Amino acid sequence: MRKFIISGAAGTGKTTLINALVQKNFTAIPEVSRQVITQEQELNSDGFPWLNIEKFTELVYQKSIVHLTNYKKAVFCDRSLIDNIAYLDHQGKAIPNNLQQFPFQEFYHKKVFFAMPWKAIYTTDNQRPEPFEYHLSLSRVLHSTYKKYGFELIEIPFGSVQSRLKFVVDNVCL
């Protein structure tokens, strides 16, 4: 089963929406990026998107492959490996071959739910230290990267968690 991706820059309500979908008995792959950042912080290492994007990307890739294998029946995915390509591109870094040649269409549905930057809900924290403007810029790169790889973007409207949940469920064809 191909997974529906919920993507967008940090702080757009993706994980809150994923959690609401899980409460409605949908299966989802959790966000790998935040797991990697937390792990790197605990190890006092440097695999962060704002410090060592290449290391961060490789760690996310490895963990994502494990998740794609372990969560075969998942319906939703909090981000995808396409996000890593956008992060690298946003920082002007080379895209590694494993990402360039990854069979995205085998794992991910062509419809991608895209959460736009939303200043009213954006906050920084230990895993998200960048200012809102950084994520606004990253959002544009994410949007164009998904398009470049042939995905159809469906923008999630701003609103309550329940209205966003209804929007996503209404636009999923299982």
TrEMBL record:
UniProt xrefs under Pfam families: AAA_28
Residue span(s) of domain NadR/Ttd14 AAA: 3-164
Gene3D superfamilies on file: P-loop containing nucleotide triphosphate hydrolases
Superkingdom: Bacteria
Record-given protein name: NadR/Ttd14 AAA domain-containing protein
